[in-house]
Amino acid sequence: MGSTQRIIERADDRSRTLIRNAGREIRVARRDRNLSLAAVGDAAGLSASAVSRIERGLTPNISVLNVARLAEVVGLEASLRLFAGGAPIRDAAHVSLLARFRDRTHPGLRWAIEVPFPNPGDDRAWDAMLAGPGWRYGVEAETAPRDVQALARRFALKVRDGRVDGILLVVPRTRRVREFLAAAGTLLQAAMPIPGAEALARLGEGRDPGGSSIIRV
Predict the structure, then answer these.
(1) What end-to-end distance do the CA atoms of the chain give, in Å?
(2) CB neighbours (10 Å) of residue 101?
(3) Facing residues of 128 across strands?
């Protein structure tokens, strides 16, 4: 199964769960307020049968608008927030960046892409995993990094939960990336203290890079 297909299937599963949970909460609130299906439907611009199906999670393509309307009618407030989650799809530039990095490492090192986190229920994955005798590092490739604080937070959580010895941030040798790293100051450097050239030289020899590092290739 391709990585994109896995991502879509995971999203579909999450969508069904969210719809079921929202329908259940709407049904509980409606009954608590002694409201009929017809009364709620009239207020929200839906039929009683449509409300019933939504409450039972049988309307997979329900709009956010209708969820928000039903929530308001029964005294709830709908909320939609997005959080960092699983691995996103990768474009050609991202794949090429990982390939260039791998070409610079020793062929005897173990290499795997899109390695899921070991914790049950955790949808995150490393872009790649690089390992040698007694050590392993999560690899994250960023072709156009922007928000240094968000990046630092995400990497800190992945190192904490990913059961690795550190993280290797791989970036391209572009002016944009150079400016980003200069603006980042010590925020990323504190978390990734090993100079990139030094880490890359060690990896080329098949050795432990010595710690987390920002590597430009």
Answers:
(1) 30
(2) 24
(3) 113, 139
HSE, CB side, 13 Å, CA atoms: give it for residue 4. Answer: 3
The residue with tokens 């002694």 is 34
Amino acid at 167: I
DSSP the chain: --HHHHHHHHHHHHHHHHHHHHHHHHHHHHHHTT--HHHHHHHHT--HHHHHHHHTT--TT--HHHHHHHHHHTT----------SPPP--HHHHHHHHHHHHTS-TTSEEEEEEEPSSTT---EEEEEEEETTEEEEEEE-SS---HHHHHHHHHHHHHHTT-S-EEEEE---HHHHHHHHHHTHHHHHHS-B-HHHHHHHHHTT----S-EEEE-
Q: How far apart are CA 92 and CA 79, in angstroms?
A: 35
Cα 200 to Cα 213: distance, rounded to the nearest angstrom: 9
What's the distance, CA 4 to chain centroid? 13
**More confident call, 145 vs 121:** 145
Among 4-13, 120-129, 135-144, whose mean pLDDT is lowest? 4-13
Residue 99 CB neighbour total at 10 angstroms: 12
Q: What is the pTM of this model?
A: 0.65
At 52, phi and psi to the nearest 5?
A: -60, -45
pLDDT (tens digit, 9 = 90+) per residue, 62-110? 999 999 999 999 999 998 887 655 556 567 888 899 999 999 999 999 9
Structure tokens at 140: 């994250």
